[in-house]
Amino acid sequence: MRRLLIWAPLALFIAFFVVFASGLISPESKTIRSQLIGKPMPQFALQPGVAGKAGVSSAELANGQPHLVNVFASWCIPCIAEAPQLDQLAQAGVPIYGIAIRDRPEDLARFLARNGDPYRAIGGDPNSSVQIALGSSGVPETFVVDGKGIIRHQHIGDIQPQDVPGIMSALGAAK
Amino acid sequence: MIAEGGLAALWLAAALAALQLVLGIMGVRSGRTDLLAAVRPVAVVQGVLTLIAFVALIWLFVTVDLSVALVAANDASTKPLLYKFAGTWGNHEGSMLMWVTILGVAGGAVAILERRLNERTLIATLAAQAAIGLGFYAFLLFASNPFARLNPAPVEGQGLNPLLQDPGLAFHPPTLYLGYVGLSVAFSFAVGALVTRDVGAAFARAMRPWVLGAWILLTLGITAGSYWAYYELGWGGWWFWDPVENASLMPWLAATALLHSVTVLATREGLRAWTVMLAVVAFSMSMVGTFLVRSGILTSVHAFAVDPKRGTFILALLAIYIGGALALFGLRVGTVREGSRFDAVSREGSLVINNLLLSAILGIVLVGTLYPLIAESVTGEKLSVGPPYFNSAAGPLALILVAVMAAGPVMRWRRDDLKAVARRIALPVLVAALALLAVILLAPGIRILPLLGLVAAAGVGLASLAPLWKRNLRRTPLFIWGMVISHLGIAVSMAGMAAESAFTRETLVATQVGATHKVGPYIVRLDDVQPIAGPNYTAIEATITARRGEGGEPMILKPETRSFPSPQTETNEAAIKTVLDGQLYIVVGKPDDQGRWQLRAWWKPFVTFIWLGGALVAFGGFLAMVGRIRREIRHAPPPEFI
């Protein structure tokens, strides 16, 4: 009896360990679905975020053609990692509109000079009001918007090389 | 350079931990005094090196060195200094470094301070501490290097989660970590004592201040965390049985049991195996808690630093340390001599019941916390275990525990007479009976659990003062005062919980500006709603006038709903007015289509007693600590001169 009691804690721990380990190994089934998908872009008109480039307004996003809207900032580190993929998409002919969150024009110019400039236009959102309206949960974040200005797809976080085909097919589906 | 210096210090500390472990094992096996003597200085230098690494990271955060990836991701030049400082540990890597630092410094402190313990046992303890340290060093250096550089450096950092930008939360994690790591020292002492088969009073006395210190900090951490959740989350509740809360409650329950059993071992040489077991369990619960919070296998409102890779690493550490300690326990505890005997009716007997009840509550919380995980792996369904399970399962046991707490301190060690004990607690029992009568008359229809809670609080509140009865108060040892105040604190807390749960009044309405509503004894009127802008958020702020009765003095409350852009979060800033007999708690929500505002108001009688009690419990622990240390100094052998 005493021997059994002595080893009971270890046996219990091993049982818990198996549960922990299986919980850790089992694939994650959570996907975040934005409530904005299928809804039109909120109304906004942003001033140019950087000298020499147009600003962005919601009206021009409903011009009959699908595009990407990329929420980013020069102070955002994953945005640097994302830059080559955005360049690749731009070279494939995808129109990309940028919304720069809480940024200064000179910082933004430096960021674009260093990491490339795939944007057709960049709107400056100094107090994050458009970001809030979009329900965006941080930078970077990318929306696929169809020709009527309706959000079709939301990508949270930086676009990594393996995400590019998914974005392209979402754009194709938004035609 | 600072970052490289910090990293170098960390590598050196890890190397010294390895040396400490090897020297310790060789020394304890061979008994060679030169090897044994080398371990203490190594432990001290290891502690100093971890401290250097930690200070280096603080420095990088305070100066906002954005070429360090961790700083760039969690700091910003525009942040207030306090949050630059606190940002050091407001993230995964920094908090792990803080953990290792406390571990290393605690090991160094044991090496310097501990003089009475048998030398071999102490060295085995330091070796065990080094073994724990090594696992966490490996974790830091291979899986979460806090000093990694970022090239090119960004021009601005990303800042800190706005929910964490709260002075309370800046110091909440260090408090809990100090508590967890204090338990790691107790764990090392237990392992050391098992290795040398030296489980006795000296070991218990050496371990006790660490358990006591850890317990005080855990008590403070849990109390503060509960108040933070209460005012910051805006739900009006003070305990949610959330996995993250449970992660701190479980080590506290184990530490509370350990604190009581270690006293039995230190005073009466009893409960040897049980005390060692509890020391292992207490630290295991700290590690299980860390694992649950960081692995992401349980979802929680506080979810933080979620990463399965890190979860795997911590799980491996868990297996090595807990599994290893339990195996050592199984192998060795059979050879530990049984402790002194005692009767069922005795101080020891009551402490055994205390320990069993605390362990049962711990089991209930552990099962409830892990049940969703178990259920998912068996049935594949996601489900959660809510407050009804915890309250109805743990509540009655807690009540019995509190009743035992009333009787235990008035019992004699070794053997007591049941009749004499009954006579000593007759007065508190009478008071409890009167309270029962009073509550039933004044609040008919009160639910059974809060009713018993109020009754127990009244009886125990009085009983906790019994050890002072007929004593010369000025000559009563400080640790007796500590016990009395801690037990009184439990009664106060319990009164608060019972009153809050029985008498809270809640009003939830959609209201227009100018309308009045009644909540408890108060009449509240929505005067105005205005948008306002904060430094890094936008908000709507309501102005509400509250009066107690028709002719009462007006009080102005201004609840807010804040929207933070990065990361996008909405927080409810409740407006809370504290008066003598409770709190008025008001939250304002969103407007509906007809322009009416959602208003939620609570009147919570005596809710502040919950945290006041918690503070008393911790203060009692502090007094006991001071009292024990003073006694130790007075009774210490004279310093040795060579």
UniProtKB/TrEMBL annotation, chain A:
UniProt entry keywords in alphabetical sequence: Cytochrome c-type biogenesis, Disulfide bond, Redox-active center
A Gene Ontology molecular function term of the record: disulfide oxidoreductase activity
UniProt subcellular location: Cell envelope
Domain Thioredoxin: start-end pairs: 35-175
The protein's name in its UniProt record: DsbE family thiol:disulfide interchange protein
Organism classification: Bacteria, Pseudomonadati, Pseudomonadota, Alphaproteobacteria, Sphingomonadales
Domain of life the protein comes from: Bacteria
A Pfam family: Redoxin
Keyword Transmembrane helix attached: no
Assigned protein family: Belongs to the thioredoxin family. DsbE subfamily.
Chief location bin: other
Biological processes annotated in GO: cytochrome complex assembly
GO cellular component: outer membrane-bounded periplasmic space
Organism of origin: Sphingomonas crocodyli
UniProt key word Disulfide bond: yes
From TrEMBL, chain B:
Location of the protein in the cell: Cell inner membrane
Keywords: Cell inner membrane, Cell membrane, Cytochrome c-type biogenesis, Lyase, Membrane, Transmembrane, Transmembrane helix
Primary residence: membrane
Superkingdom, taxonomy of origin: Bacteria
Biological processes annotated in GO: cytochrome complex assembly
Domain Cytochrome c assembly protein, first and last residues per copy: 89-295
Listed transmembrane segments: 6-26, 38-62, 96-113, 122-143, 177-197, 209-229, 249-266, 273-293, 313-331, 352-374, 394-413, 425-442, 448-466, 478-499, 606-626
A Pfam family hit: CcmF_C
PANTHER family xrefs: CYTOCHROME C ASSEMBLY PROTEIN-RELATED, CYTOCHROME C-TYPE BIOGENESIS PROTEIN CCMF
All residue ranges annotated as the Cytochrome c-type biogenesis protein CcmF C-terminal domain in the record: 315-628
GO MF, one annotated term: heme transmembrane transporter activity
Family: Belongs to the CcmF/CycK/Ccl1/NrfE/CcsA family.
Protein name listed in UniProt: Heme lyase CcmF/NrfE family subunit
GO cellular component: plasma membrane
Coiled coil: none
Source organism: Sphingomonas crocodyli
Record's keyword annotation contains Lyase: yes
Role description: Required for the biogenesis of c-type cytochromes. Possible subunit of a heme lyase.
